[in-house]
Description:
Structural class: alpha+beta
Number of helices: 5
Helix content: 25-40%
Number of strands: 8
Number of domains: 2
Strand order of the largest sheet: 1-2-3-8-7-4
Distance between the termini: 44 Å
Largest sheet: 6 strands, antiparallel, barrel
Bound molecules: flavin mononucleotide
CATH architecture of the largest domain: Roll
Amino acid sequence: MTESGPPDFDEFGIYDGISETIVTTMQGWSPNAAPIGIIRKGNRVFIRLFKGSITYFNVHSEGVLVANVVNDPVIFVRSTFSNLKESDFSFVSVSGREFPVLKDALSWVVFECNNMKMSHEALVAELLPIHAHINRSPVQAPNRGFNAVIEAAVHATRYKLTGDEKYLKLIRAYSAIVSKCGGEREKNAINMLNDFLKA
Ligand SMILES: Cc1cc2nc3c(=O)[nH]c(=O)nc-3n(C[C@H](O)[C@H](O)[C@H](O)COP(=O)(O)O)c2cc1C
């Protein structure tokens, strides 16, 4: 990435296992954002994108993306159901190319895709970091309400795809955890998610 070599992913908030990030990409002149899991195995990082999303289309055609580490549950919900506002993005220039990043990200990493493989349902690629930045690194204890918003958002994307009512039941259970353990931001996020589902 730099003369000093690849980044220490831990430092940027991307740990072993799957880190739920907001991936930002460009479609023509428009930035797009969606929650996407970044899969880290030791010092290697991968992405799996299911066909049909804008992110899939953009990554497939451009071969680059930005993984934004975000601790705002509202951004997860808004980017699951709609796109973010232009004013949520800023742009950074890396090697003469413009990349959209989230203004509210704790950190972000610009990746190039390597060895992209397509199956009938998804693409998988290894991600090579080309630039990384930290805005803030707050000390923050795990909050079950935040985690429950993420779980509910995952089930909401499955519900959107399949219409299977079992996901609504799971979302109700996670909403109860948010009521009990979440802060104001988590409660706003879960209300927004339930409103999107009713719409
Ligand atoms: C926490 C979370 C993680 C997700 N991870 C992935 C993923 O790794 N790959 C994927 O294809 N979709 C994933 N999704 C689903 C996409 O975010 C969802 O399909 C989204 O609507 C795509 O938006 P887009 O069309 O703007 O790209 C995830 C959703 C959530 C809530």
